[in-house]
Amino acid sequence: MMHHAIQNCTSEWGYCSGRGYTDPFNDVQLSVIFTEPDGKQRRVPAFWAGQQTWRVRYASPKVGEHQYQTICSDESNPDLHGQEGMLEVSPYEGENPLLVHGALTVSADRRHFEHADGTPFFWLGDTWWMGLCKRLRWPQDFRELLADRVAKGFSVVQIVAGLYPDMPHRDERGANEAGFPWDAEFACINPAYFDMADLRIAALVDAGVVPCIVGSWGYYMMWMGLEAAKKHWRNLVARWSAYPVVWCLAGEGVMPYYLSEDREGDGKVQRKRWTEIARYVREIDPWNRLISIHPTNIGRDQVEDDSVLDFDMLQTGHGDRASIPNTIRSVAGSYGRQPTMPVINSEVCYEGILEASREEIQRFMLWSCILSGACGHTYGANGIWQVNCEGQPYGPSPHGSSYGDRPWRDAAQLPGSGQLGLAKSILERYEWWRLEPHPEWVEPRWTDENFVTPYAAGIPGELIIVFMPDATPPVVRGLSCGESYKATYIAPSDGSECDLGVITADGDGSWQAPKPPIFRDWLLILEAHE
Question: Within a 13 Å sphere around the CA of 276, how many CA atoms are in the beta-carbon half?
Fold first, then answer.
């Protein structure tokens, strides 16, 4: 059989068994071996699509003829085993950056993300933990929120594959239009649930946004067990690895269920098992999509072996200004750890949570994290992550209290999201991927006693970016003696600029910045001037 596809675009077809299986999801495993034009082979898992049907999804950056053959665990079934065919892949001629440049990978210096063709990728994530549930209606609500985020410059959405935080298994608030992803005993998936989820994942990719797919919240491991967790992940890989996704093994990986009676014991089991799942996902994913884990604080501390992760996700608190010290220590600490890997603060101070963490905190967290070594940032808004609806908020968590009732549509218009989109656009004026943290380039600088102080990063001899959270004009160091720099103040809330002209470093390579025109947070940009 001949199929046709477009480069980097997902194609799909199915296989139907004439032989009836009593428990097809558990009794049969189907894969397809693809041989690419250059002879390289990929083993692609197929997913059970319901009844006696399995489907395979495939995407490739390689133009030309791809041959394939099915491999079934039941080799005696000719409908599923030994089926052969060919796929003709034609060049992609569109403008979607995920399809033009390819899926994400890690740069050679292990400090930032880039596309498969080497184009740098800036991670500006948004948090839609429960975005696959029916409370964010498909298509109207989902597409409305997506359009808003695309317009503001978001490039990633963190979204959970149905086994959500803040609720027990099969809580009605977690259902989508087809019900729940698994039955009550974790014996079998519900393919119709994932069919509805497919529409949303595809919509993200079509909009040029990377889905960061969180397999489940960490405590589900204690309910479903390791073998069911592997089956869950095989289904996710089979359905979505052909898309340019990123994998997050679990949310708050080692955090026990809120009402657990053995929190320490559960945490140890979860750490061991999520490490095993990481190795399993690495083994079965034919495209080697990037893997991380969302933590209780630092991602690499949620697993037994750092090497199973491609990048480090952090969660550093929701305490407004009180979360600043842990945030800076965690980002700087992760940046300095070995093995080197990209650092993303994937959850910090959702805007509006606990009636705090307003837009100035959003600006502080992004700029201080980026200038301390992070290669991007994830935003969150209270009301969106749990999908509060108008007149129907999410309601209480298992511990009995609610995080608030602001509807998601109102939360989407909180000013912080637009201001972080502005931050991304400012950074993209420069070769941001070459930035290195240099706290010693400013005085005063952050210390363990003072974190509300200037932060600095840059490219030696070319560029210095300073974030001034309290309008304190710093002495800038690290300049080349006698050389000139174009100096500019930029307001990180609206992008307005104050041109400071061309400045020249003192004999010791320093320069005293002038007082900014308004007492507020500022960016100071120094660019080498010829």
Answer: 14
The pLDDT confidence band at residue 214, using thresholds 50, 70 and 90, is very high
CA 125, 128, 129, 132 torsion-angle sign: negative
What span, in angstroms and rounded, lies between the C-alpha atoms of 243 and 205? Answer: 7
Q: Are residue 452 and residue 421 in the same domain, yes or no?
A: no
CATH number at 370 reads 3.20.20.80
Are 68 and 189 members of one domain?
A: no
Q: Band of the pLDDT at 478, cuts 50, 70, 90? A: confident
What is the spatial order of strands in the sheet that 475-476 belongs to? 442-443, 475-476, 511-512
pLDDT in tens, 262-308: 999 999 999 999 999 999 999 999 999 999 999 999 999 999 999 99
SS (H, E, C) 124-166: EEEECCCCCCCCCCCCHHHHHHHHHHHHHCCCEEEEECCCCCC
Strand partners, 467: 455, 523
Q: Are residues 426 and 445 in the same domain?
A: no
Number of domains in the chain: 3
Q: Which domain holds residue 55?
A: 2-90
The whole-angstrom separation of Cα 150 and Cα 506 is 44
372 and 350 fall within a common domain: yes
Mean pLDDT over 503-528 rounds to 94
Task: Say yes or no: 141 and 124 in one domain.
Answer: yes
Residue 235 domain flag: yes
Task: In whole angstroms, give the CA distance from residue 146 to residue 149.
Answer: 5
